Amino acid sequence: MPDSKHPQKTSAPKGPSFAKPKDPYEAVDTAIAMLKDLHDRYPKSHFVAEHLDVKKEPERMDSLDQQLSIFKRQYKHRIGSWNGKKVPKPRNSESSWDYFQRVYGSVTWLVDNVVERGLPTFPCGNVVGGGWSCLEIADDTYDIDGLVKATGNKELKNLFVFHGGWHIGRSFAFDQRTRTPSGEHAIVPFDESPQALPEQTPAKSIQPFGLWLHRHVTELTRIAEENLREGL
């Protein structure tokens, strides 16, 4: 019998080798492809909501030992939103964030307890019943105006929060005080406790969103796959 303390590794097929992106737009596409690949190769205990096909994967959500009632209701518009979409070419005038928004819109990756070890997880949407997420990116994740009103700190309006986990310091925001010629903003950590803005990043030092996303997803998928292989 298998040793419960040393579970056997799953026989999931090995994933493809992804080439290093040539630019921030390709970095966005590669990061999304990596998430889709992991979703497809490990058909339980995690899912990327936007890539989920509820007709073909009717039991996928139930494979998570979590209460997802609020998630199903609150994020209905995200579930399956990538399915059938073609990837267009970037526009000359858009940043990699604008490209991500136009092509993909959001990414919401939920993981079960057996998968979350070592991952920066948080309640999706900051609510019980939202499920555990390690990656939630969208343009409607947080109301910065409410924080400005609560703290009286109008400088916080310079922050555009695009990642969940703000209540436990696992969120990220764009610092809009500086931008590159291509429209990229500095990415800074964010939590909703009263705070001063970070030191302003010079435009020449700003890392495009696409490159940040690729680096972040590369690390998250590496940890998640290790957990999936060992825990399932």
Description:
The protein is α+β, with helices and mostly antiparallel strands. 27% of the residues lie in helices and 15% in strands. It has 5 helices and 7 strands; from the N terminus they run H-E-H-H-E-E-E-H-E-E-E-H. The longest helix is centred in the last third of the chain and has 23 residues, at 209-231. The radius of gyration is 18 Å and the shape is globular. The chain starts with 23 loop residues before the first helix and ends with a helix.
Radius of gyration: 18 Å
Order of SSEs: HEHHEEEHEEEH
Number of helices: 5
Report the strand count: 7
List the helices and strands and how they pair.
Elements: H1 24-41, E1 46-48, H2 69-74, H3 96-103, E2 107-111, E3 122-123, E4 132-137, H4 144-151, E5 159-161, E6 171-179, E7 185-190, H5 209-231
Antiparallel strand pairs: 1-2, 2-4, 3-4, 5-6, 6-7
Helix pairs in contact: 1-5
What descriptors fit this protein?
disordered N terminus; single chain; 232 residues; four-stranded antiparallel β-sheet; three-stranded antiparallel β-sheet; 15% strand; alpha+beta
Sum this structure up briefly.
The protein is α+β, with helices and mostly antiparallel strands and 232 residues long. It has helices spanning 24-41, 69-74, 96-103, 144-151, 209-231, and strands at 46-48, 107-111, 122-123, 132-137, 159-161, 171-179, 185-190.
